[in-house]
Amino acid sequence: EVSFHEQYGLSILVQDIDSNYTLGALEKNLNNLRKQLILEEIYQKNKQFVLPNDFFRVAIIAPPDAAGLGDFRADADLLHAQNLCEFKYFYSAFQGDAVQNEMQVAFQAVHALHESNPFDVLVMIRGGGAKLDLHTLNTYPLAKLLCDANLPVITGIGHERDNTILDEVANRCFDTPSKVIGHIRHQIFQQAQQAQANWQEIEHASKLSVKQLEQTLTHLNQTIQHSSQQLLFRWKQQIEPLNTKIGRLSEAQLQLKRHQVNDLMVSIEMPLKNKVSLKKMALKTLQQMIQEGANRALSLKKQQTQQWIALILSSGPKTQLNRGFNLAKNPCTNQPVTTAKQALKTPHLQLEFIDGYVAAQIDTKTGILKKDTSHDTSG
Prior knowledge:
alpha/beta; Rossmann fold; 5-stranded parallel sheet; 3-stranded antiparallel sheet; 9 helices; 10 strands; rod-shaped
């Protein structure tokens, strides 16, 4: 009631306080809510969600004209403008008689969009106000809405000392909306820095791996060239004695035939002059035949020797690549793949041509195809 004093002036005397709005009644209501949620085994339900390390899509429920919403959007709009995170806003009263209905509509809208395009987290912010205004948030329907949410919820109601039941059952709570957006911004920046570090590590490892492979290929190429030269030199050493031996045998045979001809000419020199002429003609013919036969034999041996040399010279890998062939290799072991069975065990092959390499993939479902002999022209 209002009273007047001559010395102190007007004053207001509180006669009684509605027990429904005393701190003791609010705490009692909060305790009852907590016990009911624990009894229904949903008090810790939202805390079972694992908060993501990074945020890409965030839903926000807040009063439309709250000061805390402006603080939140000061940083959120910058993140959204840089395409770092998308923020979707849903509005509801946080005090008064319309809280329950508007909050339920907001949760339904969040869940509907979450089904088609999931959010990483739901943020509930208010932004300050009188302590007694919090009692409208300490109701069972609102607490159950948050507990049954199908995504993690972060609260920033705006009181540093006094929490609501929503703060208790949320996955994580902050004192103010500014701290909520500060946490989101910190996680985004931290993950971006980690991603950059991971990319640099991958890039460094890739360059190192490519350098090692290049060194391995260079070494293998040098080994192949050295082995080819050694093989060619060895075959030349084996062929040259054969060529010399063939020449000696041919010359010996030719000399033997000449001696035989001379002996035959001596033996036919008989007193019969008429037969001498015939014998000379026959002898000359025979000599020509022998000479031609020896020449043919020598020419044949030389051709065979040249063919052997050409075959050996064309057996090197580089020569085969120049002729249009290619070399199949296992890209992991860099070993040649020489059979169809080996190819089936190596789904990815590296084909070497004269001008470079190409990657090939084996169709393992087809298996080994039978060789088509319809176009085989070999003898």
